[in-house]
Design a protein that fits this description.
Structural class: alpha+beta
Strand order of the largest sheet: 1-2-11-8-13-6-3
Shape: globular
Radius of gyration: 16 Å
CATH class: Mainly Beta
Number of strands: 13
CATH architecture: Sandwich
Number of helices: 3
Number of domains: 1
């Protein structure tokens, strides 16, 4: 087996490699390459309207990852629990509209992974500084579990943990680099996943940061 570090160095920046990681889940290596300028410009526009913030968990802890949202619904966490809201609780106004380049990327990635017709209503923008992490968890605040999750990595490399629907199963460790996209749904929709503490480093575009875009469809859609 080729070590991931070596694989990354051999992989042309324009090549997209689809790597199945579990039933219904795929890692699309380099899928977001070539969209850097548009994505970063859109991220700056969104965060200018809805600044990044370190939310509280229901247990009263402060998250190490800084978060904001765009789209019809934004993800919110505080002592009252995890939920989606139509308005930013800081400003009281609607979340910024999801940029067209976000929507295009999410829908194309979902299609590539076998999920046609994905219509994300929410995009979480998560920013990691060195040492920030995301504990193992399930994305289960959504009513529509038929829709997949699309997760885009930008900036510093990260070790993504991807397990099963049972916490006791040992998760796989996947090294994600700038431009990689992970899509999971179907039998893997409730897989436990997380991010190990981010190692320090410097990325040519993002410096000492990693940005993750996570697309979801929280509301229940009527059957066709």
């Amino acid at each position: 087996m080729i070590p991931l570090d070596l694989f990354d160095s051999l992989l042309p920046t324009t090549a997209v490699v689809r790597e199945p990681i579990a039933p219904g889940a795929a890692l699309l290596r380099a899928f977001a390459h070539g969209m850097d300028a548009a994505l970063l410009q859109a991220i700056e526009a969104v965060t200018a309207q809805a600044p990044l913030r370190h939310m509280q968990t229901p247990g009263g802890f402060t998250m190490s990852v800084a978060t904001t949202s765009c789209g019809a619904l934004g993800w919110v966490s505080d002592v009252r629990g995890y939920r989606y809201a139509a308005h930013d609780p800081i400003s009281g106004v609607a979340w910024p509209t999801m940029p067209a380049c976000f929507l295009d990327l999410a829908q194309r990635a979902a299609q590539e992974a076998g999920y046609a017709g994905f219509a994300p209503e929410s995009c979480l923008i998560n920013t990691y500084a060195p040492g920030a992490k995301l504990s193992l968890h399930q994305d289960k605040d959504e009513k529509d579990l038929a829709a997949p999750i699309v997760s885009v990595s930008l900036g510093l490399p990260a070790v993504f943990l991807f397990g099963s629907a049972t916490r006791k199963d040992r998760p796989r460790r996947l090294r994600l680099v700038h431009g990689d996209v992970v899509v999971w749904g179907g039998p893997s929709r409730l897989a436990f996943h997380g991010v190990m503490p981010l190692a320090d480093g410097h990325h040519p575009l993002l410096g000492r940061r990693r940005i993750n875009l996570t697309f979801r469809s929280p509301r229940l859609r009527p059957a066709p």
